[in-house]
């Protein structure tokens, strides 16, 4: 296929069946790392800019400001570069160095929030406040405010939801995804549930995030969750989320590392948490007598941006996050792509 613009490459990402041991459940991974910016946030970035253009608030050659831990910023930087906008990302110390480098490569300006923040503290509130302040000082600019911008969730409703339903012929028993701003899971779930209301939707956030209650606490997972200092965003639609779960940094990061080393699949730290919880749910379904089903897990990004952290042994050890117990758990559940027997693989869902 031949395309004319980089943004034409956003979406239509593949579903990969993860080989599982001793179960008829199918776990299908929606691999969003195959977007141009290596994450699902490209979808939201494109739709937010599209809607800002249509409403007239974003003029040709205009400036865009947004708080980001990196993936949304990368998406906005790509679309801005393509369309001639000037983009400034407001970040904190929590953003992965690789994400900062990528945004700069696409021409984005980077502004760090100031403050005495702990290493594992996400400064979302400070970032959002500064993004609004900078935009107000720049007449004609736009602050995207992704957490409350309806174009966020709508970007996934129109694309990811449709893609998943089409690829599975609507055979989806469960949908699992991260909850940060809430747009990706809520938008996708809304599309799926409008057509297949029986589908159970599970949201996953870091331990320490407060979208599903609990005590606030610091966490290292990037681009997900709601810190205790921040209100839950308007894009978190509890009407379409049936269950909220929490995953620890250790579970998330060690799952990502396991998949890279045992399956040749590199996913981001938060994405590792989604897969860990998806596998946990399947195990519980089996224990309750539900022997088969189809689960789709939204794998938000790739691990290539976390080489300094999640995939760095020294960093993991310094934070006390390495856990052989997670790897042992996963070995009992996840098979190797190469050695999974053809006779044990379920039939394809699509023709």
Describe the overall structure.
- Helices cover 36% and strands 15% of the residues.
- It is built from 11 helices and 10 strands.
- It has helices spanning 41-55, 71-83, 97-105, 124-136, 150-157, 160-168, 183-195, 249-263, 269-287, 313-318, 324-331; strands at residues 15-18, 24-31, 63-67, 86-91, 109-112, 142-143, 174-178, 200-206, 243-247, 292-299.
- By secondary structure, the chain is of the alpha/beta class.
- The longest helix is centred in the last third of the chain and has 19 residues, at 269-287.
- The protein has 2 domains: 6-34 and 160-333, Rossmann fold; 41-146, Rossmann fold.
Structure keywords:
351 residues, alpha/beta, Rossmann fold, 6-stranded mixed sheet, 4-stranded parallel sheet, 36% helix, 15% strand, globular
User: Helix fraction?
Assistant: 25-40%
Helix vs. strand class: alpha/beta
Number of helices: 11
Strand percentage lies at: 15-25%
Gyration radius, in Å: 19 Å
Question: Can I get a quick summary?
Answer:
The protein is of the alpha/beta class and 351 residues long. The chain has helices at 41-55, 71-83, 97-105, 124-136, 150-157, 160-168, 183-195, 249-263, 269-287, 313-318, 324-331, and strands at 15-18, 24-31, 63-67, 86-91, 109-112, 142-143, 174-178, 200-206, 243-247, 292-299.
Layout of helices and strands:
Elements: E1 15-18, E2 24-31, H1 41-55, E3 63-67, H2 71-83, E4 86-91, H3 97-105, E5 109-112, H4 124-136, E6 142-143, H5 150-157, H6 160-168, E7 174-178, H7 183-195, E8 200-206, E9 243-247, H8 249-263, H9 269-287, E10 292-299, H10 313-318, H11 324-331
Parallel strand pairs: 2-10, 3-4, 3-6, 4-5, 7-8, 7-10, 8-9
Antiparallel strand pairs: 1-2
Helix pairs in contact: 1-2, 1-5, 2-3, 5-7, 6-7, 8-9, 8-11
